[in-house]
Write a structure and sequence with these properties.
elongated, 4 helices, 7 strands, three-stranded antiparallel sheet
Length: 155
């Protein structure tokens, strides 16, 4: 099997299959329900391990133009490709509560990527439900407050 092409972590061959960018996305919810936030991250390490030997510039001209325009002569094809595709962000209302819906949107310019790379990739926007936010505990801030007034009335 190794002679037939590289294999992904799930055992399937990578040859001629588009890269599914969604498999490298993770979303973390932090904070309190009613005041939570969502954070999206891209697993760069796994992505590089899976595809470093696969991603290539279309040709030497594409590489030269990329390096000239982006001023990065030492950039690998993978680093350049990553710059174009690491564009996922969270679309959500502020102050998330458990059960709220968020969207992970990609902002990738496929036309721009195709100028430099023949590597095929797929992605889709994701809709997720906020979960795991800590439920705030209610308390009465005046429960242990005692007001004492000392002095002489001036009226």
């Amino acid at each position: 099997l190794a002679a037939c092409g590289q294999t992904q972590r799930d055992g399937s061959s990578k040859k001629n299959k588009p890269i599914n960018l969604n498999q490298y996305i993770s979303v973390t919810f932090r904070g309190y329900s009613g005041a939570g936030n969502a954070y999206v991250s891209f697993d760069k390490e796994s992505f590089y391990l899976d595809y470093y030997d696969t991603v290539r510039f279309k040709n030497s001209s594409a590489q030269s133009v990329y390096n000239e325009l982006h001023g990065n002569q030492s950039s690998s094809a993978m680093d350049a490709f990553y710059r174009f595709i690491n564009k996922a962000h969270v679309v959500a209302k502020p102050d998330l509560s458990n059960g709220d819906t968020i969207t992970i949107e990609w902002n990738i310019d496929k036309d721009e990527v195709s100028k430099y790379f023949s590597t095929k990739f797929v992605y889709e926007n994701l809709t997720l439900t906020a979960q795991g936010l800590t439920e705030p505990t209610r308390f009465d801030p005046f429960e242990y407050l005692t007001v004492n007034v000392n002095g002489i009335a001036t009226w």
